[in-house]
Specification:
Blueprint lengths: L13 H13 L4 H12 L6 H15 L2 E8 L5 H12 L7 E8 L7 E5 L2 E4 L2 H15 L1
Parallel strand pairs: 1-2
Antiparallel strand pairs: 1-3, 3-4
Helix pairs in contact: 1-2
Length: 141
């Protein structure tokens, strides 16, 4: 039996499937969604559902020509700043692709921002600049 290196593989009880199916019916999920969860449950991969859904979302995003751009700022930017960032990020993707921004706030950055576009990463935060300057000064002493 192939367990996909999941050492905790056990057989799913029919009662488990009924509980999950009833919960999904109560949540008014369609048959495709219920079938998906039944399949995942039968394969005993419920603990991996978050990774499965994340992978599916990545595939769907790519198929729509969207490029996810993660933008982390020290404070919440207003809409004008977000529009400017989106315009600039549009220069890093192909013309047939659409920038989709996921904006997060991390006060630990102090100022500036961190941007991730695909496999590109740019840390323009004040915290990183301070850390690098401090490391540089400590190395010189």
């Amino acid at each position: 039996m192939d367990t996909n290196s999941d050492s905790s593989y056990t057989t799913t009880k029919p009662a488990d499937l009924c509980i999950i199916d009833d919960a999904l019916k109560d949540a008014k999920c369609n048959e495709v969604t219920r079938g998906f969860f039944r399949t995942v449950t039968e394969a005993n991969r419920v603990r991996k559902i978050e990774a499965i859904i994340k992978g599916f979302n990545q595939i769907m995003t790519a198929s729509r020509g969207e490029v996810l751009c993660m933008v982390t700022t020290a404070t919440k930017p207003d809409q004008k700043v977000l529009d400017q960032i989106k315009t600039i990020l549009g220069g890093f993707v192909r013309k047939d692709q659409k920038v989709v921004m996921d904006v997060k706030v991390n006060p630990g950055l102090i100022g500036g921002m961190v941007v991730e576009v695909g496999d590109r990463y740019c840390d323009m935060s004040v915290a990183t600049k301070i850390r690098r300057l401090s490391e540089s000064l400590n190395a010189a002493v």
